[in-house]
Design goal:
The protein has 408 residues and is an alpha+beta fold. The strands form five sheets. Strands 2, 12, 13, 15, 16, 17, 19, 22 and 24 form a nine-stranded mixed sheet that branches. Strands 1, 3, 4, 5, 6, 9, 11 and 14 form an eight-stranded mixed sheet that branches. It binds fe (ii) ion. Fe (ii) ion binds next to loops.
């Protein structure tokens, strides 16, 4: 029975001392508890089951035309009107929700064991975070701010403006709820991740000490090691004011920037491309939530083969500010700026930045081979190798809008 070589007496004495310690500590009252229980042997994942019980709209499909216009309903858990977003390409890795606070309104305090990046779509306000009530930190945000309450800290959001505030969370709740299938564990957990956040006074500020030079694990295979700069911080006051860096491997006159928020495994990057240009097509694992921050254009997503027009499945996403889409697992995808201004998006993915994870695509091999040509076993289609149909569609789109092509 005691294969590890414990004597019976030794085990008993360990148990005795545990019991004593518990008595001494006076076990604290159990929290209210989560009523939700996962149905086993179901075709629905624990996360899908959980979503269905939350009582808010669940928006699905390949993309959302404008997250700012989504139908919301009161979400008792959050104390605000909200909607869940469960896009096809997330494939159970990460998910999203959007919520709105009326002027003067606040959310209920929340804490949970999944990471989230929050982007302010509209409005202005303030967030308080704390491990313990006596040690709260608050920071102000506005449209264009991006931040992450560190894992499992309490958080409460306040609208401090005169107009509604709308926030988008991209988070890894699907993965966490599916693995642990216990809402109590995820939403009523006392563990404090002091290694991530220990009340550092400058945690939610941006200063040069937080700009790290050199790529992250996800980019080391791309021959760009040392070239990238990464913000490693809890809060970005305005994503539009960050300096972007040229990323030639991603596309003509493409600029990008990586960010890791609050020591998360999740990672964010911003990409901007000039008028009349488009990025190279590439593919990787699931879960990169692409939120369009500005500009007008479209993205093509397709399966199996390098030629879009010959692909068994094709999806076209026409986008503008507020559009959200997720290229599905290993689908090729290509982003086109079809408007008269530069186009910019922010992509949040469940793994791939500060901490290298090799699981299903997110930050592992497929992302590493992002910028290696398909001809060399990678996942990027070089411009000369692309389907001529892709260029024809682009030229047609530009003609419609009277924009001059900027591609050679
Ligand atoms: Fe991508």
């Amino acid at each position: 029975m005691f294969a590890l070589g414990f004597g019976v007496t030794a085990v008993e004495s360990i148990l005795d001392s545990v019991a004593l310690a518990q008595k001494k500590k006076r076990v604290r009252a159990a929290p209210a508890g989560e009523a939700f229980r996962v149905e086993p042997f179901s075709e629905q994942t624990p996360y899908e089951q959980w979503m269905a019980k939350e009582g808010v709209p669940i928006h699905t499909g390949y993309y959302i035309r404008d997250v700012r216009a989504l139908e919301l309903k009161p979400w008792p858990r959050l104390g605000a009107r909200a909607a869940l977003i469960d896009l096809q390409g997330a494939e159970g890795t990460d998910g999203a929700y959007v919520f709105e606070l009326a002027p003067g309104a606040r959310t209920a305090p929340q804490r949970y064991l999944f990471e989230e990046g929050l982007y302010i779509l509209e409005g202005e306000g303030e967030t308080a975070v704390w491990h313990d009530e006596g040690n709260k930190q608050t920071f102000r945000w506005q449209k264009g701010s991006l931040f992450s309450p560190p894992l499992n800290v309490w958080r409460q959001h306040f609208n401090r403006g005169r107009t509604p505030a709308r926030l988008l969370s991209v988070n890894d709740a699907p993965l966490v709820l599916d693995l642990f299938h216990s809402a109590d564990f995820v939403f009523n957990n006392d563990f404090v991740f002091r290694d991530r956040y220990n009340n550092e006074p400058d945690f939610f500020s941006l200063n040069p000490s937080k700009l790290r030079s050199g790529g992250t694990a996800a980019t080391f295979g791309e021959g760009e090691r040392g070239a990238a700069n990464i913000w490693d911080t809890g809060f970005i006051p305005d994503i539009h004011r960050l300096e972007l860096y040229e990323a030639r491997s991603r596309g003509l006159r493409n600029k990008s920037l990586e960010m890791v928020l609050s020591d998360n495994a999740m990672q964010v990057h911003v990409s901007e491309f000039e008028v009349g240009t488009y990025k190279r097509a590439h593919r990787h694992g699931p879960g990169s939530h692409v939120l369009v921050l500005g500009g007008v254009g479209y993205s093509l997503m397709w399966t199996d083969v390098t030629r879009y027009s010959e692909a068994p499945r094709q999806v076209r996403v026409d986008w503008t500010e507020g559009s959200l889409f997720v290229p599905p697992d290993r689908w090729f995808h290509q982003h086109f700026n079809a408007g008269p201004t530069p186009a910019k998006y922010m992509a949040t993915t469940w793994i791939g930045g500060k901490y290298f994870v090799k699981a299903l695509g997110g930050g592992g091999r497929t992302h590493r081979l992002n910028t290696v040509s398909t001809k060399r076993g990678g996942n990027m289609i070089d411009y000369p190798d692309e389907d001529p149909a892709v260029r024809a569609i682009f030229e047609e789109e530009l003609k419609k809008k009277g924009v001059k092509i900027g591609m050679p």
